Each structure stands twice: as C-alpha cells, then as structure tokens.
Amino acid sequence: xxxxxxxxxxxxxxxxxxxxxxxxxxxxxxxxxxxxxxxxxxxxxxxxxxxxxxxxxxxxxxxxxxxxxxxxxxxxxxxxxxxxxxxxxxxxxxxxxxxxxxxxxxxxxxxxxxxxxxxxxxxxxxxxxxxxxxxxxxxxxxxxxxxxxxxxxxxxxxxxxxxxxxxxxxxxxxxxxxxxxxxxxxxxxxxxxxxxxxxxxxxxxxxxxxxxxxxxxxxxxxxxxxxxxxxxxxxxxxxxxxxxxxxxxxxxxxxxxxxxxxxxxxxxxxxxxxxxxxxxxxxxxxxxxxxxxxxxxxxxxxxxxxxxxxxxxxxxxxxxxxxxxxxxxxxxxxxxxxxxxxxxxxxxxxxxxxxxxxxxxxxxxx
Length: 366
Fold this sequence. Notes:
By secondary structure, the protein is an alpha/beta fold. It has helices spanning 23-37, 55-63, 79-93, 113-118, 132-135, 138-145, 155-165, 205-214, 231-243, 260-265, 280-288, 317-327, 331-348, 351-363, and strands at 9-16, 42-46, 67-71, 97-104, 122-127, 149-152, 170-171, 192-196, 221-225, 250-254, 268-271, 292-295, 310-311.
C-alpha cells in the first residue's frame, strides 16, 4: 500500500515589527505589492512590537490573494514572548507550508535566525539603518553571521557590514514610486519647515527646537510629522517647547498617512537624524521638488552630496548656514537644484528595480 506524502506549498516569509511605522515599513509594503502583482507566494507575520493598530492592514488582508497576513497579539511582556509567538506561528504554518526563505529587517529579529536555519528556512537580513544597533550587540553579530544572505540599502551600511562579517553584502537601494512634481514656491522665504520622521531620540528632533531657541530671528514654523515611538522623548520635546515659549512656532501632527499636502505647504525639509539608512524622507522631498538639508552623517552622503546642505551635530550654527545658503540661491540656481534632485531619484531609486532585486535574492533559495 502506497502512503501519500503531504505536499507542502512553497512560500516565502517576511517578518515585520509593525505594518505601518516608518520608512522601512513603506519599502516592504512596496515589496508586498509586487509579490501580489507578480504572484509570489508570500506570508507576512506582523509582530506588533509597538502595539500599533493599522487601518491600512485591514483593507490589505481583504484585497490580497497571493499574500497572507498573520498578526500576533499586541500585548506581550518581553522580547522572549515575541520570539515564542513568531516561532509558534511558523511551526503552525509549517504543517502545510514549506518556507524556503525568511526576510527580516529588524535587528531584534536576528535572534530568530538560528531557529529558522534549524527548520531548514534560509535567513535573509536586510539592514535598514547603518548597522549601529548590531555593532553594539554581540548576540546580534553572531546571529547576523549565521544568515544565508545579508542586504543593505546604502553604501555606508554595505561597507560597514562587510567589515563586520567578512561576507559579501548585496546593495539594494530603496524604491520611490514616480510622483508629480509639486509647483515651485514663488515666495522663496522659508516660512514653513517640515521635519518628517518617527518621534524617537535617534531622529534628533530636539536639535531643531534648539535651533528655534538659538536663532529667534528665524520666524518660520516647524512641523513635526511622524508616529510617536518613544513617549518619553515626545514629552521631552513638548516640555522644551513650553519652556522656551515656542508653542506658536511648533506643531506636532503625529502619524500622517499621506504627506503630499505637507510637502506642498513646506518651504524646506530637514532631517536631523543621528543615524539613517537610505533616508526615504529625502527621496520623497526630492521627488516632490522641495529642498532638503540633513545632518552630516555618513549614510546621508549617498543622497545629499552638496556639502552646503549638510550640517554638523555639535551645534545649531550650521543649520542656520544651510538655510542661508538655500535662501541665497538665485532663481536659476534654486530651480537647477530641484531638477537635479528629482532626476537623481528617478535615475537611482526605481521601485521596480528594487522589487526585482529582492525577488532575485529570494529565488536563490528555492
């Protein structure tokens, strides 16, 4: 008598700390859209590490056919409980699915790599910042070296990871969908500054408040747009605003689903981060036709190559110099800057190219 073997469906797996959070989540939602469109078989486990409920996700679950979503419980007491729930879900799914490869991008999830490998699942890690979280943690380093494949989205992170692991690191640049350029501002005075990004210490929003305090002659309004990840840091920012009576000059929007309106209103975009991978904020501002100044960290130099548009982190004087530089440009110089920036995104950050490269990596392990 012949015994029929259970034929398990081959699928890929993606781990996401949250479905909506920051730039990394936007990029991997693009990958998910490509998986659905091109009929990859993809499962997505959303860990809900930060307890964020996603309205967008409810619609996605209904619309997708080739992508399956698995949401974990939102309230847990420790990292260990997150890992246990992920493994429980993977083992449960493995009764009918064979995962050929798992794509992870949160450094905290590196701890799961040895367990995935023991289950015959190839582990792919995609670094989204500058690897600083990994370098500080020996456990993360050990698990990273056990990955089958390592990706980076900036040349700085790529070189750093190659030095750390001794392995070849694959560079996959972020993708930016084509958008219509917004009309250029007729009034060149900088009255409204947009600072997009999660409210967390590494995004360094406090430096912009220091600038407002140190340069009262600058009368522009600063708009912070981003989900609150660190409530303590948010309180620190708001306490600073109250202490120096900046209430009329600062607005906190929280999470904004679509920033187009904010880019349209903005005269300038500032990214003062302490660490970044490829900054999606810069790519978006370039695509929409808004000038950008950024902190002078290595990973920013991939996308902001003009020294006059980068400022040091030791004081606020250089922020003021950057703003004065932009305001001092002639109309032609300003227009040329906007055109070059937009073309840079079009030439180097194709969303189709990004998705193709991710799929090529996943297929290596079929």
